[in-house]
Specification:
The structure is a single chain. This protein is mainly β and 161 residues long. It has 2 helices and 10 strands. The longest helix has 12 residues. The radius of gyration is 16 Å and the shape is globular.
Length: 161
């Protein structure tokens, strides 16, 4: 068992894109994938796409299934580290912007609220150390209000990231 754990850790350290890992025991019938560069897990049934958003400007990876999206911004500029990020009008995904913020925990980097399309978002921001100017990376879950009770495991992914 230790041998396989060591091999799995070695593959992640070598940057081998995605690694299958099981869900916690309470949902052991489904599988998750590991995003090695981002350091988070996502359901293996979600489709992955990468989009460059000119207005940001930055690339975002979107993991989606139906109307649920998990978006990973791996590098946002200094503008994302100043003031109240995100604020109204900031892009959360290639198609959705912040409408309003309803909760913010600065010490944890957590923000939630509503998008301009009426969806709920739950976001965590991490500062990227080093460099002459500060940058950040962001993981955000976007879902319709009607799906709130079905996305608790993804909320935990973002919260624990």
């Amino acid at each position: 068992m230790k041998k396989y754990l060591f091999i799995a850790l070695a593959l992640v350290c070598m940057g081998w894109g995605v690694m299958e890992t099981p869900l916690p025991p309470k949902k052991a019938s489904k599988t998750w994938r590991w995003h090695a560069d981002g350091g988070f897990r996502y359901p293996s049934s979600y489709l992955r796409s990468e989009v460059f958003v000119d207005d940001v400007p930055a690339s975002v990876e979107v993991f989606s299934k139906g109307s649920i999206r998990l978006c990973y911004w791996s590098l946002l500029g200094t503008w994302s580290t100043l003031g109240d990020f995100p604020e109204e009008g900031v892009w959360l995904s290639p198609t959705e912007k912040v409408k309003n913020v309803t909760y913010r925990a600065y010490s944890k980097g957590i923000t939630s609220g509503y998008t301009q399309n009426g969806n709920i978002f739950y976001l965590k921001q991490k500062m990227i150390p080093g460099g002459e100017v500060q940058h950040s990376k962001v993981l955000v879950l976007i879902h319709p209000k009607s799906m709130k009770n079905k996305v608790s495991s993804l909320v935990n992914v973002v919260k624990d990231w």
